[in-house]
Specification:
mainly alpha, 8 helices, 84% helix, 0% strand
Length: 166
């Protein structure tokens, strides 16, 4: 986490230097937009941290073992698929939850299914896509994406021993 933080700080400093090189007005505009976005998303991030914290404390270990471990098989993948579809705000809510669930022992196949479902099949995303892309492209994208979370989860089940040391 510390390495990621320092990479992000370095990126921000680099972008600030780039904006300053284009003039103080550009820097001021970028600074103002950054604060606007922070104020707009801070409540959502705060709620996500509370969800993550409470899930960390309240998630029973026997539930994880039975329903969400890699040993849960299709049950875990199916639950993860549905949860990903229903997760509001996508990664802002989902990523802190994934970190908590991973720490609690949820299986890699379940987490990968959840993350893939959340990013490709969100119910909140589909109406937005319909508005921007129309029904034909949206229907095509949804149709070809239906199986992706399951494929990702199954692949994660077989590949995780090479990537995740227990």
């Amino acid at each position: 986490m510390k390495t990621t933080f320092f990479i992000l700080i370095g990126t921000v400093v680099g972008l600030m230097i780039l904006a300053l090189s284009q003039g103080f007005d550009t820097f001021t505009l970028a600074w103002g937009k950054s604060w606007q976005q922070l104020i707009r998303f801070l409540p959502v991030v705060a709620v996500a941290m509370f969800i993550s914290g409470f899930a960390d404390v309240l998630l029973p270990k026997e539930l994880v073992g039975r329903w969400l471990s890699d040993a849960s098989g299709w049950h875990g993948i199916g639950l993860a698929y549905i949860a990903g579809v229903l997760t509001p705000a996508g990664g802002v809510i989902g990523m802190p939850l994934v970190a908590t669930l991973y720490k609690a022992g949820v299986g890699a196949s379940v987490l990968v299914t959840y993350m893939t479902s959340m990013t490709t099949m969100s119910l909140l995303r589909i109406p937005l896509e319909l508005g921007f892309c129309g029904w034909q492209l949206t229907t095509l994208r949804v149709t070809v994406s239906l199986i992706l979370p399951i494929i990702a989860g199954v692949l994660a089940r077989f590949l995780s021993p090479w990537f995740i040391q227990t």
